[in-house]
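Supplementary Methods, section 5.1.

A reviewer requested that the exact input to the structure prediction be made available. We therefore reproduce it here, unchanged from the version used in the analyses.
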Amino acid sequence: MVYQSPALDAQALVDRNDELHTRKIGDGSLRVGTFRENGWTLRVAADMAEINHLGLDIVLGMFAAIPTVLIVVTLGGRWVARQALGPVERIRKAASAITIHNLTQRLPMPEAEDEIAGLVTVLNATLDRLQSSFEQSVRFSADASHN
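The structure derived from this sequence is encoded token-by-token as follows.
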């Protein structure tokens, strides 16, 4: 024996159980673990009252941490969603403002060169064609009414 706690008598931890187990000693209980390697044996024990207290502290810490993490994740998720959908909202507002009285207005190009920018390019080209067709039909109607 290299070291033994002075709080334990020599026979307190002597048993043949090499698994992690609980052992009653006096009025208390100990959690005992035995580890063997290269001819050495390490037997470690901890007071179950301290282990239970530590477990309770961990559970209480988790009960405090989990709601905090959920709040941070929820607020962060909403912020990220707003940032990601901001260009789409600007495009929606610009599209809803295009009427027959302002056919020259186009959708704003987002800063990022992504799929949304490609969609805006296609929609603006479609609006160009619609404007051209509308102007052609107005000219045709005006010409037909003069003849």
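Residues 102 and 109 are 18 Å apart (CA to CA). These observations are discussed further in the main text.
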